[in-house]
Amino acid sequence: MSRAIQVRVSESVVRTIHVEDGVASPLEMLPILPAARMAELLATELAALGFVRDGTTCRRIEADGTEVTIDLEAATIAVALGAAAQIDESIERTVHTGIERQHEAEAGLRDSVMRELDARLADQAEALRRRVTAQLEGKLADLKVELDRAIGKATIAALTEKAAQLGQIESTHEDEAGNVTIRVRL
């Protein structure tokens, strides 16, 4: 007759997880002037918005850690956000078994506990990734409005410059809707 024993397994894990999400897309700018000049006009507008220029890129890091990078040559924007969290999980399981099956029971229980810990870690990492993605999506809406204004101002500057190349500018008028009228004497 076998003696019954209680096998207890306790495992814990402490990990720091880091997740990142990002998106890149082209900027829509009209080719009114040569690309290099359009890039310069956009860089001027971006500088007014707090972007720091480094060669052919302009970069700004938001208060929430979102990094916005604009490649002036390629006319693209990349937005990235990362987050980290420390996860501390522990599980304790007990099983009753015969003494002759003690090692098998302990190994099976330990495998089960480790799988559950891994699943919990994966769930928490996924939850963090979803929070980062939601935060990034919200940020993109704000950035779109801001960048559309900067591109609009750069386009107006380019149109004014192009008009000056055609002749003498007599007047410039911008209405509330953002429409610009440039009167040129040829």
Structural summary, described in words:
This protein is 42% helix and 39% strand. It is an alpha+beta fold and 186 residues long. The chain has one domain (4-185). It has a five-stranded antiparallel sheet, sandwiched between helices. Strands 6-7 form a two-stranded antiparallel sheet. α1 (35-48) crosses α2 (102-166).
Concise overview:
By secondary structure, this protein is of the alpha+beta class. 42% of the residues lie in helices and 39% in strands. The strands form 2 sheets. The protein has a 5-stranded antiparallel sheet with strand order 1-5-4-3-2, with helices on both faces. The chain has a two-stranded antiparallel sheet with strand order 6-7.
Q: What keyword list fits this structure?
A:
two-stranded antiparallel sheet; alpha+beta; 7 strands; 2 helices; rod-shaped; five-stranded antiparallel β-sheet; 186 residues
Q: What is the count of DSSP helices, taking H or I runs of 4+ residues?
A: 2
Largest sheet descriptor:
5 strands, antiparallel
Low-pLDDT sequence parts? none
Query: Can you count the beta strands?
Result: 7
Strand content: 35-45%
- Give the count of structural domains: 1
